[in-house]
């Protein structure tokens, strides 16, 4: 066994009280052993995940098992869609949909209230085929997806193949997050039955002109859900993560990895022991950039209530209890203004 497994494990609250959120680097974690039959190996991996979650809120995963071909096909389909004319793309305008699905044009979103609109366009979709069991008040994005099949016939199959792979990866991470929180490995299983994950394909045109922190690809924000699985285009530096000293740390793409970042559902659930870290993206490279985030949340009827292992007399519960569905709906309405 590795030497660090001989160090007596620190309690979660103890570890959380000694965090170093002025991180300079984003850790890389090899998750190929996430489902290893040896519990000692899974625990060791969960310790790395804990460190990343309480100090940074971001980590790269390698050994994620998503075939390169699924990534390429999804990105290529996205590129073809964004190359359509503005009028063609607006046939799928998400403002026409009651559930935030479809196309969002440049500048129609504003993630940072101090910003002037985000310089990216996007296409949003969710799970297919579970409309019946996920309808209703509780689910802000339930209901049918829209697909640009008439212009890009392979779009739906290509992005959904990647989506399914990313969901598989996301499901394999929940037991690690549970162990990292001193919880039973299956803690999140009954809370993530629907895999209420929304995925986006994003396009950031290159930005030129004078530097203005209010005009960026995606303004400074935190994500809403438990965690995000982000593919970002290789060789393009755009994504930046804010540390506790208010320095922007580059999340440079690393070949063969995906970025995982925690969102506000996890921060609320863990009473801020898991960090939902502010980030933004600016594409000043002179070339087009594409990225694909998938936001993995809990089922929308789950109450986001501080987990007992994350609360103590020194660290009382900080957030009022809301359901995941109420929370996501409010945040989406604030970002998209509808
Ligand atoms: O494109 C990126 O690198 C970041 C996207 C992002 O932060 C988001 O969609 O929430
Ligand atoms: Fe984000």
Automatic annotation (TrEMBL):
Sorted UniProt keywords: Iron, Metal-binding, Oxidoreductase
Establish whether keyword Oxidoreductase is in the entry.
yes
Q: Which Gene3D superfamilies match?
A: B-lactam Antibiotic, Isopenicillin N Synthase, Chain
Occurrences of domain Fe2OG dioxygenase (ranges): 194-298
- A Pfam family recorded for this sequence: 2OG-FeII_Oxy
The keyword rRNA processing appears for this protein: no
Q: Where is this region: Disordered?
A: 111-139
**Cross-referenced PROSITE patterns:** FE2OG_OXY
- Please provide, alphabetically and separated by semicolons, the GO molecular function terms listed in this UniProt record: metal ion binding; oxidoreductase activity
Q: What family classification does the UniProt entry report for this protein? A: Belongs to the iron/ascorbate-dependent oxidoreductase family.
Question: What PANTHER family has UniProt attached to this entry?
Answer: 2-OXOGLUTARATE (2OG) AND FE(II)-DEPENDENT OXYGENASE SUPERFAMILY PROTEIN-RELATED
Q: What is this protein called?
A: Clavaminate synthase-like protein
Q: Supply the source organism for this entry.
A: Schizopora paradoxa
Q: What is the lineage of its organism?
A: Eukaryota, Fungi, Dikarya, Basidiomycota, Agaricomycotina
